[in-house]
Amino acid sequence: MPSPRTRAYLAATTVAAVLATGAVVGFARDGDPDATADRWVSPSASAPAPSPSVSAPPLIAAKPPAGLPVIEYGSGPAGLPADPDQDSTQALTRGLHPESRVALYDAPGGKPRAYLPSAISGLRTVVPIVEERGGWVAVLVPSVNRRIGWVPPGGWATETLRDQLVAHLSEHALVWLRDGREQQRWTVATGSKSTPTPVGRTYVMGKTRMRGDIYFNLDALVLGSIPEEPEKMASAFQLAHTGIHAWYKESVFGQSVSNGCLRMPKAAQQKLLAEISAGTTLTVLA
User: Does the structure show a pLDDT above 70 at 209?
Assistant: First the structure.
């Protein structure tokens, strides 16, 4: 969707961000530039040791049923388990890329719940791997908050992830780490009380085009997280994702004023766009 040209038009318009691939994703922008904005992150020590002569049988993946839903930008999966380590800041160093599409299960050997495609609205899918068990891997899931899905062996490849982002909402701070070492931190604007930035682990889905002087015409980093209570949002915002983007007004940094996005100084956003790749984890801490 083309960018608004005036503040009056901004107050009534939702952005559809045009990707470099030509695909379009919904990324709700700020209404009033001077008010709230955008929406677019061990076995017990007493347990007996397993017998070395006995190996556990492989966990068989049930065949996905006909009509299993495919995850889309505006449609997340149901029935998947909660992320048990949603506040973890441990670096996740491997990402999963589906070669075509892979089924997500609610547990290793469990029930298939949805397909994860190789791309979502033109954004190449790379999801962080959070756990491995018996050849199955658990990944963070897009278009739903704080959920994981289990993927059986085969049909996907792994990619190395070096970067990590951690947002501290109470401090209005965003920290960038590479290979476990802090590179930079910035003071940012976060979601307001009524439109909060979703907490927990999510990840960067990719980049989307943002046009307009209030964004310095810089791309945004689209996140896998969505509004916490979409039914309370205007209909134009209900299918949006949160994101990280530049903002023209320095007075907002250090404030809780957005519709859920993290607003960045221009130079900070330029740095993130140059360094951060798809699959990078963002942990949002209260």
Answer: yes
More confident residue, 126 or 3: 126
Read off the tokens for 123: 């954004």
Place of tokens 């006995």: 54
| Six-digit token string for 250 | 């320095």
The percent of the chain in helix, strand and coil, each rounded to the nearest 5, is 10, 35, 55
Contacts for 27-30: CB closer than 8 Å, 24+ residues apart: 27/208, 27/210, 27/220, 27/222, 27/240, 27/241, 27/243, 28/233, 28/236, 28/237, 28/240, 28/259, 29/4, 29/210, 29/212, 30/214, 30/258, 30/259
Contact in structure between 116 and 183 (CB atoms under 8 Å):
no
232 φ, ψ (degrees, to nearest 5)? -90, -5
pLDDT of 7 strictly over 50: no
Q: E strands within 229-286?
A: 243-246, 256-258, 262-264, 281-285
The partner residues of 16 in beta bridges, in order of sequence, read 26
Other CB atoms within a 10 A radius of the CB of residue 168 amount to 16
* pLDDT per residue as tens digits for the range 67-85: 999 999 999 999 999 999 9
Task: Tell me what percent of the residues of the chain surpass a pLDDT of 70.
Answer: 78
Q: Which of 118, 42, 125, 131 is nearest to 86 (CA)?
A: 131
Give the tokens for residue 114.
Answer: 């949805």
Torsion region of 80: left, alpha or beta (phi above 0 gives left; psi -120 to 50 gives alpha):
beta
- Distance between CA 193 and CA 2 in Å, rounded? 29
